[in-house]
Each structure stands twice: as C-alpha cells, then as structure tokens.
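re: ur question from yesterday

yeah so i grabbed the chain u mentioned. its 186 aa long if i counted rite. heres the sequnce exactly as i have it in my notes:
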Amino acid sequence: MKLLFHCCCAPCALSCVGVLREEGKEPELFWYNPNIHPYTEYASRRDALAEFAAAENLKLESIDEYGLVPFIRVVFPVMENGRCTTCYRMRLEKAALFAAENNFGSFSTSLLISPYQDHGAIKAAGEEAAAKYGVDFLYRDFRSLFRDSRTKARSLGLYMQKYCGCIFSEEERYLKPPKKQGPDER
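ran it thru and got these structure tokens back, copy pasting raw so excuse formatting
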C-alpha cells in the first residue's frame, strides 16, 4: 500500500521517514503548506524539503501554492478558537484528496512529530479527511523523535525554522518572552 506523507518541513520529516522505512513503508513526500509566511520562509522550507528528498532518494509531490491571502481568509474568522485546527484541516484535506486521486492507500503527516502541535486536532482532521476521500489516515505519535530529528537536520545543514509557519505564529514568536535553551536546541 502506497503512503503519502505530508511534510511541513525537512527537519520534522527526517526522523518520521526513518521510522516509516523501519516499518517497511516507503513514503512519498507531499508538500502543501500555504500557511507558511512570509514567502522567504515558505521558499526556504520548500527548498530544504526538496534537498532532503533528493538526498534520501524519496519521491516528492508538490502543490506549490504560496497562499497568504487565501490562508488568512480561511483562518481569520476562527482566529481566537480554531486557527490551528482549521490549518490542519486545510492541509490534511488536500493531502487526502491527492492520495485518493493518485492511488495511495493511506496518508500521514510530519506535523505529528511536534510537541507544540495539537495531536488530537491533527488526528481528528486526518481521520475526517480520510473518511471524506476514502483513504486511510496513518496516525503515529512521533513526538519522542522531535529533538533527535532536529539534531540530525542540523548535522545535515538543513534549514531550521524558528516558528510553526503561519504569520500569526511568527508574531507570537516575537511577543513571547524568550525561553532558556539547552545546547541541543540552538
């Protein structure tokens, strides 16, 4: 069964792909992230993922739509309660549709590696999209791999982002007081 693996960035995808390969699955990577802003950030993440895919001999499917205005139109009405959930739905629905149209039996996402993301909401969005398009959503809790994945990405010289991706999370990044970082987080 073919697995489509939605990727938010190379550092998050790296260890997930390793685990999936250990399970005997060869994922095809999928890029669709109109939430990432500004354009320079979007391009840096997209290009790092392409570099990772080439280095690992992974197929990369891409819907390369930088979408500031469409993204804001979708999330602004639910800013206070639901911005992230709406963003998960938007991206996972596109992944499920692509999976269904291209004969993938299942799909998953690298969002599941982040300890900063709402796993319940990601799982619900994935299962909802899977039911809508008749494919399976493969849920894995990859969070234990987060630090290792970032360390590996650094050692490979892959671009490392400093925030989730949307313009609102970038704002939050600058408004929050700085946290003390350990040596493996720099």
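noticed a couple things. The chain has one domain: 3-185. also Strands lie at 3-6, 28-31, 60-62, 106-109, 136-137.
anyway ttyl
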